[in-house]
Design goal:
Elements lengths: L3 E2 H8 L2 E4 L7 E2 L24 E3 L1 H9 L2 H12 L6 E3 L7 H10 L3 E3 L4 H15 L3 E11 L2 E6 L6 H10 L3 E14 L2 E5 L7 E4 L3 E4 H5 L7 E12 L14 E5 L2 E10 L5 H16 L4 H16 L1
Helix pairs in contact: 3-4
Amino acid sequence: MKSITIENLVRTFTLKVLAGENQLHRAVTKPQTYRPGLEFIGYFDFFPMEHVQVLGKKEITYLHKLSVNERKLRISNIVKYHPPCFIVTDRQEGLMYLTQFCKEEGIPLLHTHESTSEFIAKLNAYLVKTLAPEIAIHGVCVNVFGMGVLLRGNSGIGKSEMAHTLIGRGHRLVADDIVVLKKLSPQTLLGTHNETNKEFLALRSIGLLNVVRLYGRKAFQEESRIALDIELTKWEENCLNNELELESKFTEYMGVRIPHIEIQLQPGRDVVGLIEAAANNWYLKQQGYSAAEEFMKRIESELPDTI
């Protein structure tokens, strides 16, 4: 199971540490934060204790209105479950009682001036991406017309060369040789680099290129949502057909299905143009348009006149 430390959150979001300075090594393993509500009135049947607990203006104001004894009871009931940390948002003050409980239990208590909704949105997005299940595959990832495209195939078939030509046409490199795939949801797969190969493209006969140094920042993108999986293969006679629309095929990564296309290579064939066409055609399908369906409707509309 992937995890990050509380110290990582402190650095990333510039959080102030109010208590638990010696417990920042504690791990966060859940990709969503939680705002305790029912727990303050004693209902703990479904309390997600492994999540980061966020206390905003609503929660802190409620605690302030309680009597001293009641406040101690409500806070102690939550603190005893030892969540990874508490984060207080919205410039809330008067937290000495909460600080004392966290010190006694060794739980980090953190503070930010950001509003609760904005901070939770940023933290959740960060946690989902950082803790997402991931795998590494051999291939190239490029961003074509705003969508992530995986280029796969045997070593030496020309994946990196295709990526280089796509960069020359205004598209962006995401990762070469090793592509890290992160599963953000059952329908969403994110492609990125592994830090070591960031910005680098390896071309046979040329060597290693830094695309940002050569072509500027527009030539590189940190990550991209994967929309297409394109496999580059050697040309085989009598293998391709001219059907109006091939039956949809998919490649599955960590349970996420990605549309799959095979493109065969042959001297003189504009493969880069085909990759661009495939990306544009995928986009149109997402908008509900199918060229094959429209063509068939035109054929069907002419049938009565030919009978």
